Amino acid sequence: MRPDDQRRAGIGYTVVPRTLVFLTRDDQILMLQGAPDKRLWAGKYNGIGGHLEPGESPYRSALRELREETGLVVESLALRAVIHITLPTPPGVVLFVFLGAAPVGEPTESDEGIPVWVEVTALSELPLVEDLPELLPRLLEPGPVLFATYFVSDEGLEIRFD
Amino acid sequence: MRPDDQRRAGIGYTVVPRTLVFLTRDDQILMLQGAPDKRLWAGKYNGIGGHLEPGESPYRSALRELREETGLVVESLALRAVIHITLPTPPGVVLFVFLGAAPVGEPTESDEGIPVWVEVTALSELPLVEDLPELLPRLLEPGPVLFATYFVSDEGLEIRFD
């Protein structure tokens, strides 16, 4: 449905709801090295996450994606950021970013990629997904839920934190 | 775009992103009595809110809706809940619910409805939007961000808090 059709149907602007989870253990953070055949961010390092499904809260969705992509079952996650990604053509994306402490046990890999423990101080040496050098340091500081807007255009990515 | 078409286009499930704000002052809460000609919830009492626009974070969107619907300019709001409303046909709705202290000054009305200060103890006497009797008491208690899923079907509304 094109934006004009959506407006006529009274639906308006829509977004794809997604989750992104970062688990920590001592001075390390769990990153997923994207599979080389992924449509987006092939080979890049990111947190763990995916699409929200109908009937699922962002919190439950984050726990499910963690389980599916790493085999890890986490007791609790904290919502740390909500990011609205505006794309050249709707729908946009709303990304719920969670932070949590890793449970005992090692992560296992899935079709999505390989989970890897990385020293926080070594993150800058990795090919990270583009927004993470700005986002991750803010996430790892305690504080209220962060809000940000990302603008994606032909000129690249522009990031604004509230 | 129908769900099947969306999946083929690689977009997947989408939601309409919305905000809902409750301002408090002493033992009162600011409710909006919906205009009688509104498409949804005509005449019912609800918080203040509306659609997220492209390029706008949920937080900025909430501040804008408050300004537009009540004339009030608020210093800060706290995210209190994220609600995923699953409808019989996509898109669903993701509702960002904020709580804040009212600034000095009286609210002014808009086309959306009439803002009214209501004693919290008198809320149960008003025709509230259907989920509020369950949601509001939880919102007014301090705590981490709440997550809930609402299921809307022919049988009515089913509410699940995480």
How would you describe the overall organization of this protein?
The structure is a homodimer of 162-residue chains. The first copy, chain A, is built from 3 helices and 8 strands, in the order H-E-E-E-H-E-E-E-H-E-E. Chain A has 162 residues and is an alpha+beta fold. The longest helix of chain A is centred in the middle third of the chain and has 13 residues, at 58-70. The two termini of chain A are 31 Å apart. In chain A, strand 7 (146-153) and strand 8 form a beta hairpin. Chain A has a single domain (3-161), classed as Nucleoside Triphosphate Pyrophosphohydrolase. In chain A, strands 1, 2, 3, 4, 5, 6, 7 and 8 form an 8-stranded mixed beta sheet that branches. Chain A binds chain B through residues 1, 10-17, 39, 51-60, 78-79, 82-84, 86, 90-92, 94, 96, 144-145, 147-149, 151, 162, and chain B through 1, 10-17, 39, 51-60, 78-79, 82-84, 86, 90-92, 94, 96, 144-145, 147-149, 151, 162.
Task: Sum up the structure in keywords.
37% strand, 17% helix, 162 residues, 8-stranded mixed β-sheet, Nucleoside Triphosphate Pyrophosphohydrolase, alpha+beta, homodimer, 3 helices
